[in-house]
Amino acid sequence: MVDAQRSDPASEAAPTATGRRVALAGRLDLSAAIALWNSAPPGSAPMEVDLAKVDSFTGGGAATLVALAGGRQARFVGASDDLRRYLAELPLADITRAGALEQDEEEEEELAVGEGGLVEFVAAARWFIALGFEFVYWVVVAPWRGTRLRLSKAITELNRIGVEAIPIVALIGALMGVILALNAAGQLRAYGAEKFTANLVGIALTRELAPVITAILVAGRSGSAIAAEIATMQVSDEIDALRVMGINPRAFLLVPKLLAMTIAMPVLVVLGSLVGIGGGFMVAVFGLGLPFELYWDQTIEALHVRDLVLGTLKALCFGALIGLTGCTLGMRVTGGATGVGRVTTTAVVVSYVLVIVANAFFTLLFFLAGF
Amino acid sequence: MEHEVVISASGLSAGYGARTVLHDVDLEVRRGEIVTIMGPSGCGKTTLLRLLVGLERPRAGGITVLGQQIGGLDEDDLDRFRRRIGMCFQFGALLNSLTVGDNLALPLREARSVPEAVISVVVRSRLAQVGLYGSESKLPNELSGGMKKRAGLARALVLDPELLFFDEPTSGLDPVTAAGLDRTILDVRRRTGTTMVVVTHDLASAFTISDRILVLLDGTIRAQGSVAEIEACRDPDVAAFVGRRAAAAETGGGAPFVAAHFS
């Protein structure tokens, strides 16, 4: 019934000497009041609003009258006592003085990162390095002092980070081997040097590609998961609950994850290298027709123990970097669910950057050292 | 009779970034007391509680809890200190990856070398004490909000703490469950004499359980005393908070506007 009246909330009445006169009828709700606001463009003549036929009002409708009085110089006649009382009880002096609500808080926050960002970066970097030293302490020193290492938790994590990653690492490793072999064979054929495909596949995989590609897979799979898990525990007070129980959250939560990460990565890298060499072998032997023995001998001759050691060393380092990044960002999360999402993506991106930078550093170091 | 002071803090100030949350707070809690820190949302209650258990560090002032200067403790000493206290978080803060039983067993397994046979009995009886017997194999997300809080209380009790801290124990609970939790808190105190510090804005709960109430407004303690003393307090803001007077300061003031624009 009220709706029937709402369809025509405002009707023009005779203009007054000072401007327009508008009459409202029925229910004064937000949409009726907004319609009235829109009917008077800014700068239009002051209006007089007749509220005598208004039989009920909503909070939004009444509040819009206040805006009309301020923004459209409206005056009101015939308002019910109830409406007057309602408005009189609002802190209108403060409300009319206050400006528009701030809408762009998030943008301002982003801009503020400029000053606070560096401080936070330095603090996070210190946390990261301190956690690295503490990890070494808990794994190497603490067990000799009678503090047990949480091996069962580490094994659970190892399963999650390492074992469950085997299929994807194997698949990607094999495909890398195939791609490398196809590309190398195409180029080397021109010189009649197809047999060196084996050297290229073996060395490139063990020294460079397997560590980096595996690190990228593990960062995406497990670095993000670590950051998200720790951050969620942080925002739901679980970390504080551990602290209050007298349990060191770093030893209890982070060290097993870091340990699993530094064990899983080298194993996955060796696996990725072997499967990749297998992939290259399949292409070379079955696709390009290289003799089985030739490819095998070339690979054995090209690969030295030091290549495997270098690859494994890199993998260990990448594993530590990914784990430390996830843990650091997770522990330092702020801002509820949004914060959890943010640190999760940041953990992946930061891990990628650290892994690539560390790889460049290692490669340069080995090059200069003549390995 | 005069009991020993177990918590004393003086001149406490705390804040986050540029914002000051607490300034110049003094407080004292005696053994066996239930002291409630009451105040509206955002007045700094939870920050004060976090200072008392060493989860935050004050900007100024000193805190002595159970004879130890909290501010001067390193992390290992803090861990040892915290094994003497228990804390119930607002939403329980149970570890979501562990069952309720494992959550309760955690402090026993980590802090003390308690045999598993003893742990299972302790955990089950603590759960029974808060009305959750039989929930030990459930995961926290299978529990309702009230059950999580009670499980959090059971976990806090598991090491027989000398001091128990509560952050909003009854918020978000229906009146019956809230009253039940109040009864549990009083039962624990009656039986063990545990000193408790409760942060809440639930007046009914505060008036039921407290020996002493501190009213925290805008980061300072505006009033403290027994329930009767707080109810009789003349400070207008305190009176408004404890509900003797309608909170008139926040509303009203629209009359001049109506007079100016309505005819």
| Sheet having the most strands of chain B | 6 strands, mixed
CATH topology-level fold name of the largest domain in chain B: Rossmann fold
Protein chain pair with the most extensive contact, residues per chain: A-B, 32 and 39 residues
User: How many angstroms separate the termini of chain B?
Assistant: 67 Å
Gap between N and C termini of chain A, in Å?
89 Å
CATH class of the largest domain in chain B: Alpha Beta
Mean residue pLDDT of chain A: 86
User: Helical element count of chain A?
Assistant: 14
* Integer count of domains of chain A: 2
Label the structural class of chain B: alpha/beta
Shape of chain B: globular
CATH homolog superfamily of the largest domain in chain B: P-loop containing nucleotide triphosphate hydrolases
Are there runs of chain B of 5+ residues with pLDDT below 50, and where?
245-250
Helix-strand topology string of chain A: HEEHEHEHHHHHHHHHHH
Strand content of chain A: 5-15%
| Poorly predicted runs of chain A | 1-8, 13-17, 107-113
Helix-strand string of chain B: EEEHEEHEHHHEHEHEEHHH
